[in-house]
Amino acid sequence: MSPRLPALILLAAAVALALPTARLTAEVDATPARPSGPPERKPIRIASLSSEADEMLMDLVGPTRLACITYLATSPDYSSIAESAALVPRIIRHIADIEPIVSMEPDLVVVNDFNRYEVVQLMREAGLAVHRIRYPRTLDIIAENLVYLGRAVGEVARADALLAELLAARAEAESRAAGRPEVRVLFLSGNFFAEGTESLPGDLIRVSGGRNVIEGGSRQVSPEEVVFLDPDLIVMGSSLRAVFAGDPALMRLRARLETARWRDVQPPSQYAAGALRRWAKLIHPVEVRS
Amino acid sequence: MKAVAIIALLAVTFLAAVCLGERVFGPADVLEAIRAGTHPDALSDLPAPARIVLVEIRIPRAVLALLVGSSLAVAGVLMQGLFRNPLGDPGIIGISAGGALGAVVAIALGTTHMLAVPAASLAGSAVTAALAVALSLRGGKASIAGLLLSGIAINALATSLTSLIMVLSQSFLLRDILGWLMGSLDARTWSHVRIALPFALAGIGGALWVARELDLLAGGEEVAASLGVDVRRTRLLVLFFASLAAGGAVAVSGIIGFVGIVVPHVMRGVVGPAHARLIPASAAGGALLLLAADTVSRMAPGGGAVRLGILTSLLGVPFFLGLVRGSGRRDNYA
Predict the structure, then answer these.
(1) Which H, E and C letters describe A148-213, residue by residue?
(2) Which of A39, A114, A132, A191 could join A32 via S-S bond, C-beta 3.0 to 4.6 A?
(3) Going by C-beta distance under 8 Å and a sequence separation of 6 or more, which residues neighbour residue A1?
(4) In contact, B294 and B300? CB cutoff 8 Å
(5) Low-confidence ranges of chain B (pLDDT < 70)
(6) How near does any CA of chain A get to the CA of B295, in Å?
(7) Do residues A49 and A95 touch, judged by C-beta distance below 8 A?
(8) A262 touching B, CB under 8 A?
(9) What single-letter DSSP state applies at residue B93?
(10) Predicted-assembly ipTM surpassing the 0.90 threshold
């Protein structure tokens, strides 16, 4: 038999299927599902698929109501809840693999607004209650996420208490920074990756009385650019500190060099209250008392 | 007999891919889940999570592995026929690299529409394939050597631009970008199957359409022309259908390498070089390989860290090196 007959059949089928496929649209619900009030029943098997939600959920509900948490929560460098995270039944490394999550039968799933839409869509099609928090680029968004999650998990009073601590820490940082001399700050969160004004560390620096030398979003900077920026203070991780120590040009900078762990200077949760105090000490080490 | 054996093996592998996972299901569970899925109001003894895992996660994933594997393998047959070289691969003319660039742009822009990444990937594949062909033209004719060289250049350009976008992207998007570049069938739905299916059918159908011409081209372009083959038209059709097949696969799965090299070569040893048999056999072989590889990828320790594209590369590279060493001693390609 000539292969052209089956070829024609397949090509015809392809054309017939192409038109309905082209009309296939599925707009992703990009706005988080906002609870209208406390849930009828408090969720008791909460799946956190967002490293930004891990710390908030842990302090809101504790490990017994968490079905899973992300692997970053178990890292002492990144997380303030590493010890508690060890008590959670399951640690998730690979969020796109939906099957283990569905199998856990969570009664609430928390994701970020940058988690892939296929993942969210598939979980919703599987009947899971998926809530999306906003990626915390500012203290205001952290506050918003706290309130939102507090309502979603039925712990409004607890969320309000955590929020009050965060707002008090913010007010304290702002009042301490008032009237102090401006300190030009460069924060390198990775290998010469600088956090700009439009980032959470940028917001924390601003509130604590510093002036971020990187305007806008975060980006890669070269050692040469660091020299030209001439900041008063450079904060970085310990691995980058070793790079600085080995570079004669960088060691001739007049800037004060400080190292800090991720969790101490840019936690995306209520632990930003402690990060504000840390930044205040970094920016004005002599005047500020912790 | 060989056809029956291949089809039987494919059916068993498909069933295994659906049954095996974090929780192992039996074939009866699979049938019950399909029955419950098509009759939502009917009672079922299978718990809801099990039904959801089977019908919404495992079965579409297995179907997609079948479509992607067969598409990549058939694209490999076409490219090997075009270049008359068993080392031919759909990535030669930049289809994969262009698809990667398109997808990475879509992810980096933070697009939320479900079709955005596949559509951008398809556009990227189409642009790079068209560019490679256009750059290879000399006096209105595309030479094989020119196609190869322009493909290398386009690959390098697309790869460099992809790296640039990654450097400029927000850090929280890098995870998604890298996951896509490593090739995966995670979180794929029936909608992805609907996207991949027309391209797979068109690629395989188109390959069968030019099967006779490819057989004649194997003897050389002058011989083929003397036997009535329009070499220029055939070359363009081969490139077009290879781009459809490979582009459609890359759009839904990311970059999965070596299927297009390994499978046609293996199946050529099983069914012979005649394209009328080689094309369907390679389609089945590609489906088999990807089903098995995806199952291994899901079951491997590490919680999904061994991505499908990594696994096929780990398997394919030794095979590829063996081909390179053996290609000088034996030409499997007459």
Answers:
(1) HHHHHCCCHHHHHHHHHHHHHHHHHHHHHHCCCCCEEEEEECCCCEECCCCCHHHHHHHHCCEEEC
(2) A132
(3) none
(4) no
(5) 37-44, 112-114, 140-142, 170-172, 302-305, 327-334
(6) 13
(7) yes
(8) no
(9) G
(10) no
Rounded Cα–Cα distance for residues B122 and B100 (Å): 9
Residue B272 structure tokens: 């012979």
Structure-token match 């090739």, residue found: B183
Can you give the three-state secondary structure of chain A, one letter per residue? CCCHHHHHHHHHHHHHHHHHHHCCCCCCCCCCCCCCCCCCCCCCCEEECCHHHHHHHHHHHCHHHEEEEEHHHHCCCCCCCHHHHCCCCEEECCCCCHHHHHHCCCCEEEEECCCCHHHHHHHHHCCCCEEEECCCCCHHHHHHHHHHHHHHCCCHHHHHHHHHHHHHHHHHHHHHHCCCCCEEEEEECCCCEECCCCCHHHHHHHHCCEEECCCCCCEECCHHHHHHHCCCEEEECHHHHHHHHCCHHHHCCCCEEEECCHHHHCCCCCCHHHHHHHHHHHHCCCCCCC
Q: B39 burial class (0-12, 13-18, 19+ CB within 10 angstroms)?
A: exposed
The residue type of B192 is H
How crowded is residue A168: how many other Cβ atoms within 10 Å of its Cβ? 12
| Strand-pair category, A219-220 with B141-142 | unpaired
Spatial distance between the Cα atoms of A216 and A198, rounded to a whole number of angstroms: 5
CA distance A57 to A55: 6
Token pair listed for A147: 């309130």
Asked if A98 and B202 come within 8 Å (Cβ–Cβ), the reply is no
How far is it, in rounded angstroms, from Cα A105 to Cα A126? 10
Of A97, A98, A114, which has the smallest distance from its Cβ to B172's Cβ? A114
- The amino acid occupying position A18 is A
For B120-157, the pLDDT digits (tens) are 998 999 898 888 888 887 776 667 788 888 888 999 99
CB contact under 8 A, A94 and B303: yes
Q: What is the C-alpha to C-alpha distance for residues A277 and B48, in angstroms, rounded to an integer?
A: 49
The pLDDT tens digits for B169-216 are 766 677 778 878 888 898 788 888 998 999 999 999 999 999 999 999
Tokens standing for A208? 């604590």
Q: Helix B144-168 crosses helix B59-83 at what angle (to 10 degrees)?
A: 140
The position carrying tokens 């970053």 is A72
Q: Please check whether residue A216 touches B, CB under 8 A.
A: no
Helix (H, G, I), strand (E, B) or coil at B100: helix
Token digits of residue B53:
């895992």
Tokens 């089928």 sit on residue: A13
By Cβ distance, the residue of A10, A96, A98 closest to B205 is A10
